[in-house]
Amino acid sequence: MLPASLRRFFWDQEFDRLRWPEDLEPVARRLLSAGDGPALAWLRAEVGDGRLRDLIRATRGRDLDPRQLRFWQIVVDLPAEEVDAWLADPARRVWEERVSR
């Protein structure tokens, strides 16, 4: 089970149905984008930066806004060129420009 302190980050889900580590990917994606300091410290201790880097790569950072993605680029040591390419993707830019107005 997940720590009760994480419940508030899953307001739109049945928190008690989430299982760790079976639901690692959706839990990690949510915490990477919405977690606070203690939640992120827990996630990094449980998963490790290498696995978080792999997860961000697998999703091309789609759950993260540009500012968050740049933060995680530094924290988990993603190459800037790779992140630049994700952010320049026209499909991503259409969505970001739409929601930022």
Can you characterise this structure?
With 101 residues, the protein is an all-alpha fold. The protein is built from six helices and no strands. It has helices at 24-34, 37-47, 49-59, 66-75, 80-88, 90-99. It is globular, with a radius of gyration of 14 Å. The relative contact order is 0.11. The model has no long low-confidence stretch (mean pLDDT 93).
Summarize the structure.
The chain has 101 residues and is mainly α. The protein is built from six helices and no strands.
Task: Label this structure with key terms.
6 helices; 61% helix; single chain; 101 residues
Using DSSP, what is the number of strands? Answer: 0
Q: Give the termini separation.
A: 39 Å
SSE string, helices as H and strands as E: HHHHHH
Note the overall shape.
globular
Amount of beta strand: under 5%
